[in-house]
């Protein structure tokens, strides 16, 4: 079992966030409805906390029960999770809440 | 790992992460309420949604380091029993205090919660009946039964009290426009509820 604590790379995510145009930039001003919608969305901290807590529970269960994950190292899992989280949010961002 | 098992494991993780991120996001309370209001996300709202997803993705990515440490710790981190605030007593034996709620939030999907503004129902003094269901008051034509939402939090718009029931025990809770669920009965007895809480105690539980 891998002993070191790999740090999950977040470089890609940072770039993705930076790539979002600044709200005060050249983008057209949001309508009143769009501003209200933005204000009604949850805080990203709260949403991230909920996602991480649920994800930890799921992963703990999978690691304990799924034979395909016996012997997986922390480094392997770190690499997978980084890629999968990026993909998951890209999908959810793209599709909104519509069923795919 | 052998290569075949490696690919099986890889696929399990990908499926778990994609499913969980999506489910947790679209069933998050505020998101769900917006979804009910705007079933098709209008194009003009997409930038705000995409900003939220980008910010959340960054925070989840950052949180993965701690998550991995926790998953690979020799034993799960000890969870000290939170002490009750001094002098805090339960109004009745069905009242859930923040320490109880904190534990229940860890297994959030095992519960459904009916939010109400009815004091008697909301404090488990009287049984939960369809007549007092806020969903029914707002929409008398809603299909018969008692409404709740998956998770301990419920849909906060419906009132300051939350009555929590086990999701998988004696009753069948059908999903109606997730995370809303419906139990097709006239009433649910106080005894069937795990307990009740106030929104202040729920907020405190989230901070613990």
Descriptive tags:
heterodimer; A: 100 residues; mainly alpha; 4 helices; 0% strand; B: 208 residues; alpha+beta; 6-stranded antiparallel β-sheet; 7 helices; 8 strands; globular
User: Strand portion of chain A, in percent?
Assistant: under 5%
Order of strands, widest sheet of chain B: 5-6-3-1-4-8
Query: In angstroms, what is the radius of gyration of chain A?
Result: 18 Å
Which percent range fits the helix content of chain B?
40-55%
Count of DSSP H/I helices of chain B: 7
Order of helices and strands of chain B: HHHHEHEHEEEEEEH
Unreliable spans of chain B are: none
Described by the principal axes of the CA atoms, the overall outline of chain A is: elongated
Work out the largest interface and the residue count of each chain: A-B, 67 and 64 residues
Query: Low-confidence spans of chain A: pLDDT under 50, at least 5 residues?
Result: 11-22
| CA radius of gyration of chain B | 20 Å
Annotation, overall tally of beta strands of chain B: 8
Please report the distance between the alpha carbons of the first and last residues of chain A. 38 Å
Overall average pLDDT of chain B: 87
Give the helix/strand class of chain B. alpha+beta
| Structural class designation of chain A | mainly alpha
Note the overall shape of chain B: globular
Textual characterization of the structure:
The complex is a heterodimer of chains A (100) and B (208). In chain A, 62% of the residues lie in helices and 0% in strands. Chain A is elongated. Chain A is mostly helical and 100 residues long. The longest helix of chain A is centred in the middle third of the chain and has 22 residues. Helix content of chain B is 41%, strand content 15%. The model of chain B has no long low-confidence stretch (mean pLDDT 87). Chain B contains seven helices and eight strands, in the order ααααβαβαββββββα. Chain B has a six-stranded antiparallel beta sheet with strand order 5-6-3-1-4-8. In chain B, strands 2-7 form a two-stranded antiparallel sheet. Chain B has 208 residues and is α+β, with helices and mostly antiparallel strands. Chains A and B meet through helix 1, helix 2, helix 3 and helix 4 of A and helix 1, helix 2 and helix 3 of B.
């Amino acid at each position: 079992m891998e002993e070191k604590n790999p740090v999950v790379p977040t470089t890609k995510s940072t770039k993705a966030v930076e790539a979002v145009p600044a709200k005060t930039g050249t983008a057209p001003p949001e309508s009143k409805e769009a501003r209200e919608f933005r204000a009604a969305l949850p805080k990203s901290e709260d949403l991230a906390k909920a996602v991480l807590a649920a994800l930890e529970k799921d992963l703990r269960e999978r690691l304990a029960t799924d034979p395909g994950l016996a012997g997986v190292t922390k480094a392997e899992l770190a690499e997978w999770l980084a890629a999968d989280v990026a993909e998951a949010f890209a999908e959810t961002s793209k599709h909104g809440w519509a069923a795919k | 790992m052998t290569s075949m098992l490696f690919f099986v494991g890889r696929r399990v993780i990908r499926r778990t992460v994609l499913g969980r991120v999506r489910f947790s996001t679209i069933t998050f309370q505020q998101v769900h309420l917006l979804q009910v209001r705007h079933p098709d996300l209008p194009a003009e709202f997409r930038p705000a949604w995409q900003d939220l997803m980008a910010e959340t993705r960054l925070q989840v990515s950052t949180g993965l380091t701690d998550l991995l440490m926790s998953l690979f710790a020799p034993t799960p981190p000890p969870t000290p029993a939170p002490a009750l605030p001094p002098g805090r007593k339960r109004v009745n034996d069905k009242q859930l205090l923040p320490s109880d709620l904190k534990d229940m939030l860890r297994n959030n999907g095992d519960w459904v919660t009916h939010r109400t503004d009815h004091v008697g129902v909301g404090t488990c003094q009287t049984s939960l009946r369809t007549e007092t269901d806020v969903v029914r008051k707002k929409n008398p034509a809603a299909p018969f039964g008692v409404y709740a939402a998956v998770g301990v939090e419920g849909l906060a718009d419906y009132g300051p009290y939350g009555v929590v029931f086990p999701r998988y025990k004696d009753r069948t809770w059908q999903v109606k426009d997730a995370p809303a669920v419906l139990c097709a009965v006239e009433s649910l007895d106080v005894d069937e509820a795990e307990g009740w809480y106030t929104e202040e105690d729920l907020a405190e539980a989230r901070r613990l």
